[in-house]
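Throughout our pipeline, every protein is held as a single compact record rather than as scattered files. Such a record has a labelled line for the sequence and another for the backbone structure tokens. The remainder of this section carries one protein's record, kept here as part of the documentation:
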Amino acid sequence: VDVIRTFIAVDLPPDVLNALGQISSQLQEKLPGTPVRWVDFAKMHLTLKFLGDISKENIGMVEKILQSEASKRQVMEIGIGGIGAFPKTRHPRVIWIGVEAPADLNDLRRGIEDGVARLGYNYDKYEFTPHLTLGRISRKASARDVRTVGNVLNDFQVGFIGVARIDAVHLYQSDLLPEGAKYTRLYSAGLIDLESQSID
């Protein structure tokens, strides 16, 4: 295969993933039989840039961009909590958990986006809204189903879940298989970790 489907993301710690899994289970219990495709919580990540199909010769260039951008920025923390939906809670299509990210994360994302734009990849049409996707409502869902999901979301409270320490940015390969998406990490670039640098 000459092209592979890829995206750039940061990972979440196991305690946050487990909390997201519990929230997802609670929602699924409240929404039996509704046409929602739930994301496997073990595979959740915060996507910074979806590249789509990329040629194998471009992978090395993307790795250099990640290395360059990561080497300019320190390890950071993001807060995770709250629940919502795109385009809005009453008419949901995507169910998400909120992410409170420092300006540094947006700077990192913008640096990566500028870099891959030079390789010919388009800038995102929408302003970056950091979020973690819990589930997607099927396009075939009836208006009634969409309303049902919206009503449940409106009454469903999610408080502060926790803090995730972001110490690296990753390039992932995404393979769409019958049993769901499979993600394979191709490359990781570490951020600057001042705490782990020994002082003589």
User: Anything to note?
Assistant: The chain has one domain: 3-190. The chain has a mean pLDDT of 92. Residues 3-190 form a domain with the Cyclic Phosphodiesterase; Chain: A, fold (CATH 3.90.1140.10). The longest helix spans residues 14-30.
